Amino acid sequence: MSANDEKLPRCSECKTRNKICRVEDGQGPTYCPTIKMSEVIEHACTEYDKPDIKEFARYASIQEGECYVNKGANNPNARYAIKPRVQETIEFCHKMGYKRLGLAFCDGLRKEAAILTEILKTQGFEVASVVCKTGRTPKEFLGLTEDQKINPGSFESMCSPIVQAAVLNEAETDFNILVGLCVGHDSLFMKYSKALCTALVVKDRVTGHNPLAAIQLYESYYSKLIKQEFKKGGSVTVSVKEND
Ligand code: SF4
Question: Which member of 27, 42, 99, 222 has the lowest number of beta carbons within 10 Å of its beta carbon?
Answer without folding.
Answer: 42
